[in-house]
TrEMBL record:
Organism: Cellvibrio zantedeschiae
Gene3D superfamilies in UniProt: Periplasmic binding protein-like II, Winged helix-like DNA-binding domain superfamily/Winged helix DNA-binding domain
Protein name in the entry: HTH-type transcriptional regulator MetR
Compartments, as annotated in UniProt: Cytoplasm
Family statement drawn from the similarity comment of this UniProt entry: Belongs to the LysR transcriptional regulatory family.
Domain HTH lysR-type residue range list: 2-59
Domain of life: Bacteria
Main location per the UniProt record: cytoplasm
Keywords recorded for this protein, A-Z: Activator, Amino-acid biosynthesis, Cytoplasm, DNA-binding, Methionine biosynthesis, Repressor, Transcription, Transcription regulation
Amino acid sequence: MLEIRHLKTLIALRETGSLVEAAERVFLTQSALSHQLKELESKLECELFIRKSRPLRFSEAGKRLLLLADDVLARVDEAERDIKKLIHGEAGRLFMAIECHSCFNWLMPTIDIFRNQWPAIELDFSGGFTFEPLPALAQGEIDLVITSDPQAIKGVEYVPLFSYEMHIGIANQHPLAVKTFLQPQDLADQTLITYPVERSRLDVFKQFLTPAGVEPLAVRTSELTLMMVQLVASGRGLCALPNWVLAEYADKQLISVRSAGEKGIWPTLYAAVREEHVSTGYVQDFLNLAKAHCLKNLQGVKQV
């Protein structure tokens, strides 16, 4: 008999394309996930995906079950949201601040979905360039902060959304393009283009350059991601941004991207919420919507 767990497993397989990563996503060992799939295939008397295919490819039967999974799981999520509304009520406020300026390109679709499902919730948001959003969160001025820089603040809880690799963007013809990855010293004679925020809040400094004692030749700022990429493409400097942000431009061959160090740097993006607010139905729903949207749509991100 088909169960919800089977449908979730198939969705995880589709989104990750890997038995290993799918097992991590549904909190199973790889052997337990393989056993679950074999048991399901035995009951259905057919194979659901092509073994040893790279990337993983589903059979026609598997594709049919994926359609069912999309429909059923969406209905389950909707029912759970309705129950939360009945329990917690529909009125409330969700004022957000974003320390990660690159997050606008996934936050807006999430807000659109959320607004349709919770129309009575008052929504507002702002960038975190001109004020300190985490202290404002603790003081009740705002209700949620998107950040990759968690700080120990009493009464604030950090909910992980996903992890991402910090990529360094360089011009296609840049001398550093011959390298498979970059070391901190490679940036010592380069102009680094960043958002206009403190260095302590930028991954490229706090996790890459500063620990190595390296200072870039110059730092140039821009509030606009597209402007940063255009400056990089024209050879005016390098930038360090999340992999999902630079993937679009790299796929179009406008710039090249390299990892920071041989193993790369993988920060985690969090939603910071006040402790007494985190279990509220509409807050939980927003967090779930954000996670689901990003894991499905952002290239290169991973579930924490």
